[in-house]
Amino acid sequence: MHFRPAFAFCASVLATLILATPSYAARCGGDFNTFVAAMSQEAAASGISQGVISQALGGVQQDGGVLAFDRRQRGTFNKSFEQYVSTRVGAGRINAGRAMLQRHAALLSSIEQKFGVPRQILVAIWGLETDFGKGDMGKLPVFRVLSTMAHDCRRTELFQGELLAALKIVQRGDLRLNDMIGAYAGEIGQTQFLPSSYIKYGVDFDGDGHVDLRHSVPDVLASTANLLHTSGFKMGAPYGEGTANFEAMREWNRATIYRKTIGYFADQLGGR
């Protein structure tokens, strides 16, 4: 997994940042266990079972390392595009991406037909986020991360919403509790969806009854396409800086340099 940028720039985060966040009842700051108890009540009121709540939040600990990382990483992307892209899109990754285009050609064709997002864009995102699912998807317990971030008062409503969404993922049976492992802002899976984006955009494309963004390549790629399609991405239109498609990718990642890197990588995969 690549070195993840500041939370403000994390992939899939914008879906949450752009939408109005509802107001939640738990008070940030103060005693952590009291906060978790309040969040547990909030979750129960939202229809989460007591079994899921107790398994996910019982004994959850605050993680000072997550807070330190979040404060340290805000405001990255200070490289030029040329400097940044040279570290992210090399010959090895391009060749691996082209192999993925061939291996999953039929799947990508069906996703293109349904969602109208070109395969090169999807494979580029997949490669940049987790090296096509072979890289690091994060090693942190999602509920520990989100409880810690929600307790912190800077963005408490945002992360209270993410915490409830993560509980819904388990409640729906999409992922087991021991699969709820992610990155420093709670991102999950092969294209690093925040839990709220997982709930909103997740697609069961392999037809097994669950949206599995850790293990199911069809679900991963279709869900990524669904996010971009819902954001207004149009098949066959240019996606370079200044275009409507470039703006639609802002829902994926608001950093211009990152979206330019997606486009550059997609061009390399397409032989341009």
Q: What does the model show?
A:
It contains 14 helices and two strands; from the N terminus they run H-H-H-H-H-H-H-H-E-H-H-E-H-H-H-H. With 272 residues, it is mostly helical. Mean pLDDT is 91; it is low at 1-21.
Secondary-structure element string? HHHHHHHHEHHEHHHH
Q: What distance lies between the first and last C-alpha atoms, to the nearest angstrom?
A: 26 Å
Taken as a percent bin, the fraction of beta residues is under 5%
Structural class: mainly alpha
Apparent shape: globular
The CATH topology of one domain is what?
A: Lysozyme
Looking at the overall shape, the CATH architecture of one domain is Orthogonal Bundle
Q: What integer value in Å does the Rg equal?
A: 18 Å
CATH class of one domain: Mainly Alpha
Query: Order of strands in the sheet with the most strands?
Result: 1-2
Average pLDDT reading: 91
Please estimate the helix content. Answer: 40-55%
Task: Let me know the number of strands.
Answer: 2
List low-pLDDT spans.
1-21
Count of alpha/pi helices:
14
